[in-house]
Specification:
By secondary structure, the chain is α+β, with helices and mostly antiparallel strands. The protein has a domain of 107 residues: GTP Cyclohydrolase I, domain 2, CATH 3.30.1130. The strands form two sheets. A four-stranded antiparallel β-sheet has the order 2-3-5-6, with helices on both faces.
Length: 158
C-alpha cells in the first residue's frame, strides 16, 4: 500500500526541483520518514562512495567511501537529505575519525535507531589510508555493538 501525504510529512527535499547545495556543515538538512515495519528487525545499508571533506590543518581535500548500516526503530533517514547533509561536509575541516563520529551521532539524534554503524574508507594520504569505524546500539543491541567493533579490527595477512 503506498504511503499517504501524512506519512510523507517532513520529506521536503525528495522530488524538489529547486535543490540548493549547502557548502557548510548542516545537520538540519537531514529528514526522516516513518518506518512502516517497526516490528521487523532489519538492516538498512547506505553506500556513499563520494564523501569529501577537508583536512583541518592543510585545507586539502580528503575523499572517502562511507558505509552506514542501521536497524531502524520508528524513523528512517531520507536518502536525498542524507546526500545533501554529506555534501555539507565538503568545506568542513575535520579529521576522518571526527567525520565518522559526527555523522553517526547526528543520525542517532535524528532517528533513534536500534543500532547504527558508520565505516569510512578514506583514500590514502602520505601513504596511509584511514578506516574509522563508529557504532552505537540501544540496551538490547550491546552484544551487536561489541561484536561488530571487534569484527572491524583488521586481520593481518600471514
Amino acid at each position: 500500500m503506498p504511503r499517504d501525504n501524512k506519512q510523507l510529512e517532513g520529506v521536503t527535499l525528495l522530488g524538489n526541483q529547486g535543490t540548493k547545495y549547502v557548502f557548510d556543515y548542516s545537520p538540519h538538512l537531514l529528514e526522516t520518514f516513518e518506518n512502516m515495519h517497526p516490528d521487523n528487525e532489519y538492516l538498512v545499508t547506505l553506500d556513499c562512495p563520494e564523501f569529501t571533506s577537508l583536512c583541518p590543518k592543510t585545507g586539502q581535500p580528503d575523499f572517502g567511501h562511507l558505509f552506514i548500516n542501521y536497524i531502524p526503530r520508528k524513523r528512517m533517514v531520507e536518502s536525498k537529505s542524507l546526500k545533501l547533509y554529506l555534501f555539507s561536509f565538503r568545506n568542513r575541516g575535520d579529521f576522518h575519525e571526527d567525520c565518522v563520529n559526527i555523522i553517526m551521532k547526528d543520525l542517532v539524534a535524528l532517528m533513534d535507531p536500534k543500532y547504527i554503524e558508520v565505516l569510512g574508507l578514506f583514500n590514502p594520504r602520505g601513504g596511509i589510508s584511514i578506516k574509522p569505524f563508529a557504532n552505537y546500539g540501544d540496551a538490547e543491541h550491546q552484544d551487536l555493538v561489541r561484536a561488530r567493533l571487534l569484527a572491524s579490527f583488521p586481520h593481518p595477512e600471514k
